[in-house]
Design brief:
mainly beta; five-stranded antiparallel beta sheet; 2 helices; 16 strands; 35% strand; signal
Length: 256
């Protein structure tokens, strides 16, 4: 009998450990009562107020030495909150990237001094008078940077300091019908990028500043690529006054 009871206790403990969500145990078992016989969980409800319930009658009989009784009770506190078999937790991640534009233009300011050297003119005494002192050929400069671009919608601008191009500021006097003291030039920049607000693969882009233009701009989406800048001063139709010709061209990459 002791071994059987130990087995029963072990089984109860196992049920409690594996299945804590099962209904709590509350049992009464009676046996050997002449008016009840074998009963499990007899009613504890009185039919009439002065008549004992079946459970009370059985308990009274046992108290007077009739039959036997077995009871088992189990209890445990409920969950502290409603159980949730699935929990979804959303983490909001954030950060920021500063707007930036880059253009590698050499390691010092000398890299940005573009000198055409001597701009040759027709100096031969056998030249026709209508060709004397005119440019022998176009003056050209090519600039390439392998690192250029902006990481946001941006504007590419190319501006000359003077719409007349390269200017001889100390030309002295000259016949304006035959000579001039300026050399107009064009600027053509090319790179790979996309239109402003466009989300697409990059394609060939260009910005052209004509000989009669002071500046030009072009808006772009974020881009990065090499950039090539070609400066061309075509042959002018008049003779050039001797002296130094100079001017500046400014490339601006500006995040919007």
């Amino acid at each position: 009998m002791k071994k059987i009871l130990c087995g029963a206790v072990a089984a109860v403990a196992l049920v409690g450990a594996v299945s804590p969500a099962f209904a709590q145990t509350a049992q009464r078992h009676y046996a050997g009562l002449p008016f009840v016989g074998t009963a499990t969980n007899p009613s504890n409800t009185r039919p009439v107020w002065f008549i004992p319930s079946a459970q009370e009658a059985a308990d009274g009989a046992v108290a007077f030495g009739f039959g036997t009784r077995y009871t088992s009770y189990a209890d445990a506190p409920s969950d502290s909150e409603t159980a949730t078999p699935q929990v979804d937790v959303v983490f909001n991640l954030s950060g920021s990237v500063n707007k930036d534009c880059s253009f590698y233009s050499g390691n010092n300011s000398n890299a940005r001094n573009i000198d055409f050297g001597v701009i040759g003119v027709r100096t031969g005494n056998n030249e026709n008078v209508n060709s004397a002192f005119e440019m022998v050929g176009p003056a050209t400069a090519n600039i390439e940077s392998l690192t250029a671009g902006c990481n946001f919608n941006n504007e590419v601008e190319i501006a000359k300091n003077d719409v007349n191009g390269l200017v001889n500021s100390a030309a002295g006097g000259y016949d304006t019908n035959e000579f001039q003291a300026n050399i107009p030039y064009t600027v053509n920049a090319s790179w790979t990028g996309v239109a402003v607000n466009s989300v697409a693969g990059g394609s060939a882009q260009s910005l052209n500043v004509g000989s009669n233009d002071l500046s030009k701009t072009k808006q772009q989406g974020a881009w990065r690529s090499a950039m090539n800048i070609a400066i061309t001063a075509p042959v002018v139709n008049k003779g050039l006054v001797a002296g130094t010709y100079s001017g500046t061209t400014t490339l601006t990459l500006r995040a919007l």
